[in-house]
Amino acid sequence: MRYRIRQTTTYTYGSMVPFARHVIRMLPAERRLQRIARADIRIDPEPAERWSGVDFFGNRVVSVAIARPHKKLVITCQSELALEARDLTHPHATPPVSA
After folding, report:
1. How many C-alpha atoms does 57 have within 13 Å on its Cβ side?
2. Distance linking the first and last C-alpha atoms of the chain
3. Rounded to whole angstroms, what are the CA distances from 90 to 33, 34, 48, 61, 72?
4. Is the pTM of this model over 0.90?
5. Residue 17 and residue 19: Cα distance in Å, rounded?
6. Is the pLDDT confidence value at 88 over 70?
7. Exposed, middle or buried, 77 (CB in 10 Å: 0-12/13-18/19+)?
8. pLDDT band at 15; cut points 50, 70, 90
């Protein structure tokens, strides 16, 4: 099964911000049953510095520094991923429902 995901996060500040640093965790992680076909992150205003990596838990992290005055920050992530089906018909595959 394939999914296309788009998420936009907008920060609007009460006054002009001269400089900002952000750590962004919006990109999907590669997992055993989840394969990333495409993942892109757009940031407005454009960052002066940008670093991408993976944290201890395998989550994708983007760290940015915005070095120009701004009153609004828009982060848009677009991803396409494929999930492999798994069999959940086995009675021990899910926990029991308690009454």
Report:
1. 5
2. 33
3. 18, 21, 52, 36, 50
4. no
5. 6
6. no
7. buried
8. very high
Buried b (16+ CB within 10 A) or exposed e, 14-34: eeeeeebeeebebbbeeeeee
Closest CA to 3 of 29, 53, 37, 46: 37
Residue with tokens 């400089």: 19
pLDDT bin (cut points 50, 70, 90) of residue 92 is: low
Residues 25-58: tens digit of each pLDDT: 999 988 888 899 999 999 999 999 999 999 998 8
